[in-house]
């Protein structure tokens, strides 16, 4: 059996490129000011959840998962006219949210140093 040279053993995919059929990320829109606005969920479902827009497509929502209410801070994207949640984000339980609010002033002071 002949030996295969390293040059011939090239992989057909790059390790960091991901799948080729992935959609390109949505274009970023600049937004003036740091306004936080609240509106009803416009994602097309009838859940009636309230959404707060932090910046661009970054939103805060209250979701229910397995019977527990969660604070969902997440980047969203638009596909076929619908705003959908992306992979980048975090869901916090009520106790985690309260803990975050409790340390928020300390974090702000540390950032301003």
UniProtKB/TrEMBL annotation:
It is found in: Nucleus. It holds the Pfam family PC4. Residues 52-102 form the Transcriptional coactivator p15 (PC4) C-terminal domain. GO terms for cellular component: nucleus. The keyword Cell division does not apply. Keywords: DNA-binding, Nucleus, Transcription, Transcription regulation. The keyword Aminoacyl-tRNA synthetase does not apply. GO terms for molecular function: DNA binding; transcription coactivator activity. Residues 1-52 are annotated as: Disordered. Residues 9-43 have a biased composition (Basic and acidic residues). GO terms for biological process: positive regulation of transcription initiation by RNA polymerase II. It comes from the Eukaryota. SUPFAM superfamilies: ssDNA-binding transcriptional regulator domain (SSF54447). Belongs to the transcriptional coactivator PC4 family. This is Transcriptional coactivator p15 (PC4) C-terminal domain-containing protein. It comes from Drosophila navojoa.
